[in-house]
Amino acid sequence: MKYILAADDEPANRDIIEEVLKDEYEIVCVEDGLQCIESITQRIPDLLLLDVAMPGMDGIEVCKTLRADEKTNQLPIILFSGFAAKEHIDKGMLAGADKYITKPYLPSQLRAIINEIFEQNNGHH
Amino acid sequence: MSALSVEHKTRIYADQLRTVYFNFVPALLGTSLGAILLVALQWNVSDYRALLAWLIIFLVINSIRGLLVYQFKKNDPDEQQCQIWGKWFIYSSISAGMIWTIGVYVAFPYGNLPYQLTLAIIVVGLSAGATSTISVHIESFILFVFPMMVTLITLFILENNYSSYIVAITLVFTFLFVYRGAIKIYNSNLKNIELLIGAEVREKDLIKARNEAEKASLAKSDFLANMSHELRTPLHGILSFAQLGMYKNGDLPIEKVNKYFKQIFSSGERLRVLLDDLLDLSKLEAGKMELQMEYVSLHEIIDSCVGEQDARLQTNNLDVHCNYDTELPDILCDKNRIGQVVMNLLGNAIKFSPANGNITISTELSEGDADSKTKQSVAKFSIEDQGPGVSEDDQETIFRKFQQGKISDFQLQGTGLGLAISRELIHAHSGRIWCEPKSTRGALFKFVIPISENEQFANKVTG
């Protein structure tokens, strides 16, 4: 079972991710960027779902930090946020995200995007 | 000129003085040449020893004036310092005027009309020269030219003959002509400086207006981006849980269904609060918020807010200490709106306090508020927490829309409208609200509102 780590400061969003993915994946949710980095140092996930707007260390910073580390620079990262302007999306993609999803997204869309990323990665391997 | 500010008058004076100082070296050389010419021409018809002594003193004074110009250029004084340099220039002009007056007196050959006329030509030449060099600083021009012209005219009158009277009258007209020329140059220069200042002021105004427009545009973009984020987040909750419920409809236990409905409800509730906040803010900003003013106890308002937050306080194991001023009478306010402000400040204190922390709320009756200059009795409210606090740079900006707790472009906590609404509400009560710097950890928010004499707001539309 693939292991997915999700970081979001909104409890409702963490609930949604868990509800949507728990049957197909091993899913762990953390509340902020620092916890996310800490969790990855313990165990590198197969995919990271990362909220952009978080207190302490935002998703962009987390993304940059992970891309700067050779252990995690290939880790698939999906950023998601309510910030939907082009400049925000560009910032996320420049930070090294594989995808930037704007809220609201539907559970079915999230599943489809995750499947697509895993299939791509399998293809590469 | 009357409409000009003190600042502009100082600037004009400095510009005039700089014009004089920077063009003064040729004038000094010209007057030195005039002095030598005077002594040479009058050497045989006047007391040459007196002339020689005069020339030496004259050259000493002119050298000192030269030194003054050198120092001015070297120091390049600012507008304020120019006031002092102006005085020095006046003293220098008085000295030059006096030495020329003495020169006219010493060199005047009594009973010798041709040489008297030679002297008169030199003096008129000097006056004309002064018109082009120092008339911009009109006081100096008058102090330089007036004494020697008056002395010369008086000496011609004292000659007491027909020719000398004619020369004296001619000199009076010449002097008036020269003076008129000087005034014209002075006014023209003044107008040029005023035009220059006007152009600079307009340029500054334009730059300021452009910067403000850019800021407003940026604030609008920020507002829309934040608004989009704040609307999309609860909408995401509603849509996601609704779809989850729909897809798993048959398999879901009742607890799950309840959980999904609760999540949909709380996301919807969050949207409602956001829309209410936006509506409040737009009403307040447009001055259309209706306040229901009545005399109420601030302490009762605070107690009610603390009571409402009891569950959150217990969850986070936070203690609220209330230090009430028992002298504080009922205050004239809209209790719901002041309650909204207190609730917002208390909510922030709870949100940012560490577990097991303390929150201290204090009230105080005060005679007047030093910062807003009111002499009325005011109620002071303060709330202090032990959270991360507010950095000095953010103490003003956090009261702007969507600025609360904003650390980076993407870090928002809460709707970010609470403090903006609180500030508008306190302003609507003729009070003020601020975040006070603290030497220790934590945030300290205060507001003051007048206790009474606020009747103009009662049941009226604000603004």
Please compute the radius of gyration of chain B using only Cα atoms.
Answer: 40 Å
Question: What order do the strands of the largest sheet of chain A run in, or round the barrel if closed?
Answer: 2-1-3-4-5
Instruction: Describe the sheet with the most strands of chain B.
Output: 5 strands, mixed
Query: DSSP strand (E) fraction of chain A?
Result: 15-25%
Topology pattern of chain B, helix = H, strand = E: HHHHHHHHEHHEEHEEHHEE
N- and C-termini, Cα separation of chain A = 17 Å
Query: How many β strands of chain B by DSSP?
Result: 7
Question: How would you sum up the major sheet of chain A?
Answer: 5 strands, parallel
Oligomeric status of the shown chains?
A: heterodimer
Query: What is the rounded distance between the termini of chain B?
Result: 37 Å
* Strand coverage percent of chain B: 5-15%
Count, helices of chain A: 5
Question: How many β strands of chain A by DSSP?
Answer: 5
- Shape by Cα distribution of chain B: rod-shaped
Residue ranges of chain A: pLDDT <50 for 5 or more in a row? none
Mean pLDDT across residues of chain A:
91
Polypeptide structure, described:
- The complex is a heterodimer of chains A (about 120) and B (about 475).
- In chain A, about 45% of the residues lie in helices and about 20% in strands.
- Chain A is α/β, with parallel strands linked by helices and about 120 residues long.
- In chain A, strand 1, helix 1 and strand 2 (about 25-30) form a beta-alpha-beta unit.
- In chain A, helix 1 packs across helix 5.
- The radius of gyration of chain A is 13 Å and the shape is globular.
- The mean pLDDT of chain A is about 90.
- In chain B, strand 6 and strand 7 form a beta hairpin.
- In chain B, about 65% of the residues lie in helices and about 10% in strands.
- Chain B is built from 13 helices and seven strands.
- Chain B has a five-stranded mixed β-sheet. Chain B has a two-stranded antiparallel ribbon with strand order 1-3.
- The interface of A and B includes residues 55, 83 and 103 of A.
